[in-house]
Design brief:
Mean pLDDT: 86
Helix content: 55-70%
Largest sheet: 5 strands, parallel
Number of helices: 9
CATH superfamily of the largest domain: Cobalamin-binding domain
Number of domains: 2
CATH architecture of the largest domain: 3-Layer(aba) Sandwich
CATH topology of the largest domain: Rossmann fold
Low-confidence stretches: none
Number of strands: 7
Order of helices and strands: HEEHHHHEHEHEHEEH
Structural class: alpha/beta
C-alpha cells in the first residue's frame, strides 16, 4: 500500500500478526478500513523514521571511529540488507547528508568531516574494485564537478555502474569542463555521469558545466547523466537527471532497453 510504503507481503504479515486490523469479505479476501490504516500509518512511519535515523547515526559513528576494514565489510553487506547497490547508494548518501548537517550545525571539525568522507570513499572504491567486470564491458566515466572535493556521490555512482557490468572509471573533482570536453572527443565511452552534492549551490557554475559537456555527448551518442542534489539546471536539452540512486537505476534500465523503433 502506497500510504504505508511497503509491499503486499509485509501487509499480509502485519495482518496475520494482528498488528493491522482487517475484516474478511464473503470471498475470503482481506478488507482493510481506511480509518484503521490512517491510524496505523503515523505510528508505523514514525517508527521507521526513527529506525532509519538510528542506522544512519550508527554508520556515522563507524566511519568516524571504526577501522577501514570494518567499514569495507559493512559496505559489502549493504545490498543484502537494502536490496541492491542502488538502494544501498541512497543509504550511504543519507549518511553523507548526516555529515553535512553536522557540519552546518558546527557539530564536527574539519578533521572529522574529512576523515568520515575519505573513509567512506575509500571503502566504496575498494568494494567497487572487487566487482567482476567483463573485458568487453561498455565503458563509463564518472566525474565530480569542481568544488565537490569529497566526491562521495561519484564513488557510489561508480560502484552502481560496476554492479551493472560497466567498466566505470572515476575522475576527481579537479577537471575543468573545457578539459573534459576536449579529452572526451573521439573516445568510446558510452556514458558520462556528472555528480554534484547538495553543497554545490552555484547554479551558474553547474549550468556552464552542463553546457560545455552536453554537446560533445550528443555528438558522440554518449549518454549523459547529471546526478546528485546539486543546483543542476532545471531545463535540459540532452541527458538525464537523477536525484537519487534509485532514479539512476531507472535511467540505466531505460538505456539498456532495446529500441522498439523499426530499423
Amino acid at each position: 500500500m502506497k500510504l504505508l510504503g511497503v509491499g503486499s507481503t509485509t501487509i499480509k504479515r502485519w495482518a496475520d500478526d494482528g498488528v493491522l486490523p482487517y475484516n474478511r469479505t464473503p470471498g475470503g479476501h482481506r478488507r482493510f478500513r481506511m480509518s484503521e490504516i490512517e491510524d496505523f500509518a503515523p505510528r508505523h512511519n514514525g517508527h521507521r523514521s526513527a529506525l532509519r535515523t538510528t542506522v544512519i547515526s550508527g554508520w556515522f559513528e563507524l566511519l568516524r571511529d571504526g577501522g577501514l576494514s570494518d567499514v569495507i565489510d559493512k559496505v559489502r553487506a549493504l545490498p543484502d540488507i537494502q536490496g541492491d547497490w542502488f538502494a544501498a547508494g541512497d543509504m550511504l548518501g543519507a549518511v553523507f547528508g548526516h555529515l553535512g548537517r553536522r557540519w552546518d550545525n558546527e557539530e564536527c571539525s574539519v578533521l572529522e568531516a574529512n576523515v568520515v568522507s575519505a573513509k567512506l570513499v575509500q571503502a566504496v572504491a575498494t568494494v567497487s574494485a572487487g566487482l567482476p567486470v567483463a573485458t568487453s564491458a561498455p565503458r563509463a566515466l564518472v566525474a565530480a564537478v569542481p568544488g565537490d572535493h569529497h566526491a562521495v556521490g561519484a564513488a557510489i555512482a561508480q560502484l552502481c555502474l560496476r554492479s551493472r557490468g560497466y567498466e566505470a572509471f572515476m575522475l576527481g573533482s579537479t577537471v575543468a569542463a573545457e578539459q573534459l570536453k576536449h579529452d572526451l572527443a573521439g573516445t568510446d565511452f558510452r556514458l558520462l555521469v556528472l555528480s554534484a552534492s547538495s553543497w554545490q549551490t552555484d547554479i551558474v557554475t553547474l549550468k556552464n558545466y552542463f553546457r560545455h559537456l552536453a554537446p560533445v555527448c550528443r555528438e558522440q551518442a554518449m549518454e549523459l547523466v547529471l546526478g546528485g542534489k546539486g543546483a543542476w539546471p532545471a531545463e535540459m536539452d540532452y541527458g538525464h537527471m537523477c536525484r537519487t540512486f534509485r532514479d539512476f537505476r531507472g535511467v540505466l534500465d531505460a538505456i539498456a532497453k532495446p529500441s522498439s523503433s523499426p530499423t
